Amino acid sequence: MEMRHVKTFCAIVKHGGFSKAALALGYAQSTVTGHIKALENDLHIPLFDRLGKKVLLTKAGHQFHPYALELLAIYEKAQEIPQNNDYLEGTLSITSNESLAVYRLPQLLRTYKQQNPKVNIVLETTTNEHAMKKLHEGETDVIFLIDESIAHNDFIIRTFCNETFGWILPIHSPVQENPFRLLQDTQFIFTEQSCGYRPMVDRFLRQSGNILEKTFETSNVEVIKQAVMCELGISILPYIVVQENCQKEQIRFQPIETPAVIQSHVIYHKSRWISPVLQSFLSLLERG
Questions:
Q1: Is 288 strand, coil or helix?
Q2: 3-78 CATH pick, 3.30.70.940, 1.10.10.10, 3.40.50.300, 3.30.1490.100
Q3: Residue 83 has pLDDT above 80, yes or no
Q4: What mean pLDDT do residues 21-32 have?
Q5: Residue by residue, what is the 3-state secondary structure of 254-276?
Q6: Cα 93–95–100 angle (5° rounding)?
Q7: pLDDT tens profile 148-161
Q8: How far apart are CA 94 and CA 125, in angstroms?
Q9: 265 forms bridges with which residues in the sheet?
Q10: DSSP 8-state code for residue 47
Q11: pLDDT tier at 82, thresholds 50, 70, 90
Q12: Peptide bond into 238 cis (omega under 30)
């Protein structure tokens, strides 16, 4: 069984067909077909049902798919084994939500890069749901999320930081004013529905008994901060997001009532091989 054939199989599943996989891999479609025939011969099982133009995984194909992903991940990580003991080489793939990627990870990655100058770092920002999916499918090494509670049998989940949440208010808003009273005349600015801490914010607002008549929603926390500074509304965000703005007296932060603290998490796959590149990163996290 050749790894290039396994890679082709995974590409067909990911992209949904032979022709799309051929395009993604830079192969002729006949080459893709040949790879799958060879793989099926090696395994002595049919991997796909070909129904006209549609290609569907067989039961055996479904069973083989997670093993194929694991084989491919191990093969790719094996390429990262350094040729000497001076420096690690390879790629560290990180997926994170936006707030942590912008305000928590840069200093951490700076330290890691100083220790491992030959390691390439790939950092992608996305939603919690998509990050979990990428980790499950072996498309990233480690993910960082802010969420009230995360549980998954296939993942190792560690606390990264405690994130304090509070009202984000215009700097000239009355210090003693109840933020809910401000909402009588201004709008509340929400993060997107898929944001990890949106459920907490929704629940907090709902339990307050206040009805929000004017709202604004955006996926970008920088947009929220700029909107608050321009007095377009108020919001609730982690303190780390506005710490610098508060120090510059551009925004006022007022902690909310319970729960004011939500944990951010670092998560990696329980069953996948931990490469030297990833192990070095996890060790840095453990040292704090």
A1: coil
A2: 1.10.10.10
A3: no
A4: 89
A5: EECCCCCEEEEEEEEECCCCCCH
A6: 125
A7: 778 888 899 999 99
A8: 9
A9: 145, 159
A10: -
A11: low
A12: no
